[in-house]
Sequence to fold (168 residues):
Amino acid sequence: MKYAQLNSDVFTSIVDFEWHQTVEEYRHAKQVEGLKEASIYEAMLTLGHLKRLAGVISSKGITQSTLDQFILDRGQEVEKNTLNKDIRNLNAFLTWATKSRFVGLGLEIKKVRVAQKPVTALTPQQVRNVLTAASKYPTLRLRVLLAVTTGLRRGDIEAIRIGDVHFD
Fold:
């Protein structure tokens, strides 16, 4: 592989690596990037599912039909949100594998559509119950009040600063 990378102006073909070698190279690349171990673990799970369901034994075995079949088979095992997580992990892997010349160009996986859950508002009694439960914790109660009265999301409430509030 190093020879192919050093001589990339001469060598333009795909490098055929055994699957476990490809996965280890990917793991190493993600560690070098500084990715958290939990994220690397999730990516490795996805690649393990790809090997299990698609029977991939080398990097050349990753074709569009293999990926499509994996999505169909994996979709039978898990919910759509989990399938989309696997698709994100595979897209990151494919980007890396294409740059590293483990797979050819043009491989593509698109996320599946997930039906949006309807947003339901809390009833006045539910709001009272939440405020009662949060009353023991003043900062939490303040956050709940901000959320209930303004509709701000948790991330927005966490990011708000005194300078952001116009008391006029």
Remarks:
- The longest helix spans residues 80-99.
- The chain has eight helices and no strands.
- The chain has a mean pLDDT of 85.
